[in-house]
Amino acid sequence: MSTQDISNDLPVINLDLYLAGPRDSESVLRECTKAAEALIIYGALVLHDSRASEEDNATFLDLIEDYFDQPEAELKKDERPELGYQVGVTLENTEKPKCAADEPCLRIIEALEPSERPLDISAHSPDPKCRFFWKMTEKPPYETQFPALNAPNVVPQADFLKQRWPVAMEQWGKSMKNAVADLTDMVATGLGLPVDTFRNAGRYGPHLLAPTASDLVKYGKKDTILAGFHSDLNFLTIHGRSRYPGLNIWARNTGKRIPVKIPPGRNLLVQAGKQLEHITSGLIKAGFHEVVVNDQTLAVIERRKVECPERPLIRISSTFFWHLSSDYDLISIPALKNKAQELRIKQMQAGKSDGDEVIYNPMKVGQQVRNELKHIALMA
């Protein structure tokens, strides 16, 4: 796959094919290469996994809609700002899009054609979205240096939620966690690395089921920014289908905005994050994206008012952040560093910008996360 092959449809990676094996068959190895190339070129892909139940996703979306339909005073009981909001709820107008004040990111926006730029985030306003973080971690057999990133979960205490909550969160969270962990094996294979390179590095990661919620009664006007132009700080982000459109991504080096459409069926969206960019020395770049209210969002709002008048008008993103382990040494893999440099030179020779050259200094993953949280105003 080359940058000339890019379309507005993300590549669909067949995880069923990989799981059926054998892992060294030509068809499986070809699918692994396709997965790695999709992340290199698009920073995103669609993952087909027959284990992912649409019914579980719908149950999860209903639960999160019901949770965020509560009064703010109830929601505030679940805030944990002293932990960098890394468990529990983050209320609207708290999290800032990093790109609003990040010079390299602003230069990426400036390099885009005006018609392909994200909605303007220069006002530096925090996002109007809320979020809930639910940890899905395996306890490490050692004392972590980053306890705040590995804090216990918060369970909402409202009577109509507390029994449903852990069951629905774990059910859907496990589906996405299993899917993305299996994808890391495919990507490692496609990059020419030992199959379990990334899975082992993320075994004790502070993985998060992390739905966002946007009140479309308050913030349902066209061109409202629900989540400003940004990339994710973790390794891979995976999403189930949202009930409301509005997610746009930018494929690397194309300068084109791509409205995300997840094909019907048991499909999930996956995006590359900063930890994957760091460990591959920029061979795979963290994908930039935004969530906005557009004409398609407005059409679904009107349809939901008619079809589901009893349901709250809240846009939920069915999101899971897969992390490397906090105490893992985040060091660029030498073989991939060379490939990244070759790709950068090729892009420059073709007259295409690849953004500012980045030096990926070695550090603990937990330190990388802390650094990123400070940029988006979630940690002092």
How would you summarize what this structure contains?
By secondary structure, this protein is an alpha+beta fold. It contains twelve helices and 16 strands. Helix content is 35%, strand content 17%.
Protein described:
There is one protein chain. The protein has helices spanning 15-20, 26-41, 54-68, 72-76, 103-111, 159-162, 164-190, 197-201, 274-279, 295-307, 334-349, 365-375; strands spanning 12-14, 44-48, 88-90, 130-135, 208-209, 212-215, 225-230, 236-239, 247-250, 257-259, 267-272, 288-292, 314-317, 319-322, 329-330, 363-364. It is an alpha+beta fold and 380 residues long. Helix 2 packs across helix 7 (164-190) and helix 3 packs across helix 7. The longest helix has 27 residues, at 164-190. Residues 1-6 have low confidence and may be disordered.
Number of helices: 12
Shape: globular
Listing every helix as H and every strand as E from the N terminus to the C terminus, the arrangement reads EHHEHHEHEHHHEEEEEEEHEHEEEHEH
Structural class: alpha+beta
Keywords:
380 residues
Task: Itemize the secondary structure elements and their pairings.
Blueprint: E1 12-14, H1 15-20, H2 26-41, E2 44-48, H3 54-68, H4 72-76, E3 88-90, H5 103-111, E4 130-135, H6 159-162, H7 164-190, H8 197-201, E5 208-209, E6 212-215, E7 225-230, E8 236-239, E9 247-250, E10 257-259, E11 267-272, H9 274-279, E12 288-292, H10 295-307, E13 314-317, E14 319-322, E15 329-330, H11 334-349, E16 363-364, H12 365-375
